[in-house]
Amino acid sequence: MNFKLNMLVAGLALGFSASALAAEPIKIGVAGPFTGGSAPMGVSMRDGVKLAVADINAKGGVLGRQIQLIERDDEAKPERGVQIAQELINKEKVVATVGYINTGVALASQRFYQDAKIPVMNNVATGSIITKQFADQPDNYIFRNSANDQIQSQMIIKEAVDNRKFKKVAILADSTNYGQLGREDLEKVLTARGMKAVAVEKYNIKDVDMTAQLLKAKQAGADVVLTYGIGPELAQIANGMEKLGWKVPLIGSWTLSMANFIDNAGKNGNGTRMPQTFIQDPNTPKRKAFIDAYVKAYNPPQGRMPSPVSAAQGYDSIYLLAAAIKQAGSTDGPKVKAALENLSEKVDGVVTTYDKPYSKDNHEAINAQTTVFGEVKDGKVVLAK
Amino acid sequence: MEILLQLVFSGIALGMIYAVIAFGYQLTFATSGTLNFGQGESLMLGALVGLSLVGTIHGGPYMSYLLMIPLVIVFGALQGMLVEWIGVRPAIKIKSEFGWIMSTIALAIIFKNVAENIWGKDDLTFPSPLSSAPIDILGANVQPMQIAVVVGALAIMAAVEIFNRKSIYGKAVVATANDRDAAGLMGINTRAVITFSYALSSAVAAFAGVLVAPLTLTGATMGASLGLKAFAVAIIGGLTSGVGAIVGGLILGITETTAGYYISTGYKDVPGLVLLLLVLAVKPSGLFGKAAIKKV
């Protein structure tokens, strides 16, 4: 009896390991906030990633192996991000991780990947410092394919000061890492032009009253409000302006395109502008295919993607990574990283076509040329004219 | 001057939101010596149930804002009874000093998770029954809904107070609040009174929910920070006084907005919390509270 049982167990174990050897999937981590105020970005990113993986797997995968996603919700909390990073590296043994929506979570978590020599593809988080966190080390495993805050803050100030001739700018930023690093970038660009914001104010996530902040900006004579924050509180700003009967244009970081800003601000959000790498506008066949596939797979309300930018960047991040793994011929972290820094194949993404996107010193795939201005118009983001 | 007025008006509207929730804390504390730490979640559930009735999220709108209010109040009352029955009654029965703290917090977490599953995790817009265009009062802008919040909050608190003073059932509540054991000996069913006070406190919170929802965003996480601030208000004002809730709410609301403007928006929550610490140090029973003599 015992012998039989042992044989059975041994047989089963052998069977499992044999089948595992035959087509061991390539495990890729996906980390982002799938709940909370940042969820529209996290969920869209994850959905974009899933679409790309489904495409690649349908075509036979990479190196003859299927890609398997390990998804984890970091709840936009740095401490959760750290736990997840350790789990993905040590338990799941991922080959690479895509994700990070929140700059603070990225900064706390990616050191574990750096130590383990596993590449991270930041596909949404924009804090300028993210890819330079380990710039002093010989190898840097942190890559990005979103428009970082340096690019965005340059664009925002250019739009506000050069194009629309506003003279007195006020900055409203939330108290998270994201808001405060972005505010620093905005102030740096202003200082470089010999300007100074007339008011720089701060608010907390979940604040329901923005009267004090807005009054300060109004009293300082601001003729435009620049923002760095996420959807729900940005909507409170737009609605708070109506409450005060003070209407000046809002220009801010790309998060002003989040569905939870557009819905909650309603008509108060009209005319708001923000830099965008991707707008839900099927102006190329590739984009049309992507948008159609997204709408078909996830059926968002009114056919509107909750955060098109996140979905598109999520989609592209997988293609960049897959191209690198293919070129490296291996899933070994240092080799994949080396391949990313010297991609020979052009990667055709939905945001842009990536032609040698990365080099040893430059881990940013997106530049100002691939970023446009979007404008909120009747519940949608359209290309600003 | 106009600036100050604007800040004070915004502070009053914000403070009244805190006051209504704080009032709910007091109702249960008076009769049973226990608090519902899920008071913020009662507000959140009230707001979300209201949203399902008047909003478009579940195929609605099914009714007008005014018709929805009584239904939400009834829902709140039932929810409060559930909390009392599951979380508080067992603790009172075994004369546990602190069992109700964890059980009401546990229920709050459960309610939040249930709400996340039903209504999703995102913040939603609550359709405003009144125009959102501000009106000018003495040079400061006030939204009609902000006035509605203040009036509605005062009305519900007044209604509860009048009920307690005038009706025979209310007198039973007051008697229980004054001395539970003596009230029990006089033939008052104190257990029913405690259940009733929980129902009342959650109903008030649910009402507050639909009142503030058009101003704030509605979502499963809206209750936590409001509930916490209201708890601070209840401590500042005193856990045994209805007037204390109103005054405490106004103090905290106005301090928050004015400190945000005159000190720094980064520090706007600090003065209110310093005030809380001061009150605890100087007059631990709260500005309007009676010092309770604890019999051992």
TrEMBL record, chain A:
Signal peptide range equals: 1-22
**Any keyword Signal?**
yes
Domain annotation Leucine-binding protein: ranges = 25-378
- Top-rank taxon of the source lineage equals Bacteria
Report the Gene3D superfamilies cross-referenced here: 3.40.50.2300
InterPro entries named in the record: BCAA_transport, Leu-bd, Leu_Ile_Val-bd, Peripla_BP_I
Sorted UniProt keywords: Amino-acid transport, Signal, Transport
Q: What family, per the record? A: Belongs to the leucine-binding protein family.
Protein known as: ABC transporter substrate-binding protein
UniProtKB/TrEMBL annotation, chain B:
Q: Which Pfam families match?
A: BPD_transp_2
Keywords, A to Z? Amino-acid transport, Cell membrane, Membrane, Transmembrane, Transmembrane helix, Transport
**Membrane topology qualifier:** Multi-pass membrane protein
Q: Which InterPro entries match?
A: ABC_transp_permease, BCAA_transport_permease
Cell membrane among the record's keywords?
yes
- What is the superkingdom listed in this entry's lineage? Bacteria
Localization terms from the record? Cell membrane
Sequence intervals crossing the membrane: 6-30, 65-86, 98-115, 145-163, 196-218, 230-252
Q: Which family does it belong to?
A: Belongs to the binding-protein-dependent transport system permease family. LivHM subfamily.
Q: Please state what the protein is called.
A: Branched-chain amino acid ABC transporter permease
Source species, please? Answer: Duganella dendranthematis
